[in-house]
Amino acid sequence: MTTSEEYASVRYVVDDVPAAVDFYTAHLGFTLKDSPAPTAFADVVRGPLRLLLSGPASSGTRATPAEASGPGRNRIHLVVDDLDAEIDRLKGAGVSFRSEPVSGPGGRQILVGDPAGNLIELFQPARR
């Protein structure tokens, strides 16, 4: 097995690759790394995270069993400095939220849905 020390990679199955690329680059600070088959596959990066966006024609999607074809409860976790400011910014851009803000001993979080329904957690750590 090979290893990459540059990125940690996560695959999200999406319905519309260009819409997903637009969402992650416009709203969440990702940059487009590669898009060899723009309607089937693209990868975007943010810091050490490489997010593989696989559309219906990609091999990554075709390998997914039918019973696991919808978005799951797993999510990527993005740390933000000011959760309230991010909520206001994203609401202003028309981004859909999948939860209300939740507070706990470690900090505050809210869930956002990408165009395919995959979850993204925006998390502001508690001040210590």
From TrEMBL:
<feature type="region of interest" description="Disordered">
    <location>
        <begin position="54"/>
        <end position="73"/>
    </location>
</feature>
<dbReference type="InterPro" id="IPR037523">
    <property type="entry name" value="VOC_core"/>
</dbReference>
<dbReference type="Pfam" id="PF00903">
    <property type="entry name" value="Glyoxalase"/>
</dbReference>
<dbReference type="InterPro" id="IPR029068">
    <property type="entry name" value="Glyas_Bleomycin-R_OHBP_Dase"/>
</dbReference>
<keyword id="KW-0479">Metal-binding</keyword>
<dbReference type="InterPro" id="IPR051785">
    <property type="entry name" value="MMCE/EMCE_epimerase"/>
</dbReference>
<dbReference type="InterPro" id="IPR004360">
    <property type="entry name" value="Glyas_Fos-R_dOase_dom"/>
</dbReference>
<feature type="domain" description="VOC">
    <location>
        <begin position="6"/>
        <end position="125"/>
    </location>
</feature>
<protein>
    <submittedName>
        <fullName>VOC family protein</fullName>
    </submittedName>
</protein>
